[in-house]
Amino acid sequence: MNDNQNGKVRVLVADDHEMILEMIELFLSQTGDFEVWTARSLKDAIEQIKKNGPFDIVLLDFVMPGMKGVAGLKTAIQSNGGKPVGIITGSPSGRNVTDIVNAGAAGIVLKTTPMRTLANALRFMAAGELYLPRQITIDREQEVDDANALLSKKESQVLSHLVEGMSNREIGEALQLAEPTIKMHVRSICGKLEAKNRTQAVLRAKELGLY
Fold first, then answer.
1. Structural domains in the chain?
2. Most exposed: 110, 121, 131, 191, by fewest CB within 10 Å?
3. 67: closest CA among 59, 52, 24?
4. What integer is the mean pLDDT of 112-139?
């Protein structure tokens, strides 16, 4: 899990909230099996990685200075030599969770997580596993259920053809419906999935696991 001769997990925690950072540093330092470094911005974190890394696990605040969403996460992963980099955040949207995981994060830790659970999550991620708290898993499942409930049976059929890249005319022929009716269903799908056009609707549907 780490190259330390003393067997401790080398962890870098980056967060621009001073109190959160100090609480995490204090707790982890007292557990006995962590060596802790801290940073207050992405730039600071990258400098720490270059100077003292790579770390067994890096934990980044998702909204601290310099992050710019998953762009900062990818930069940190590259800087840390491919070793695990996780995200700590408040209440991420389903879209953010998907983007974070797809970008290669080792996991997501909520800021409401008890310190003992945080320590276990860091050990888990440092061991090469993906950590997602149960609440995030439940929220994602609920979001998919809600999206499924939003679309009617006919809209779901139209969506399945949109995924295949079919035009309104082709979908109409496949479902034996008039083209204006297909346009109406596409417009409804876009509205329900909060998409500006059919392409965004397909992307949103994929994100929600609808196909």
1. 9-137 (3.40.50.2300), 151-207 (1.10.10.10)
2. 191
3. 59
4. 85
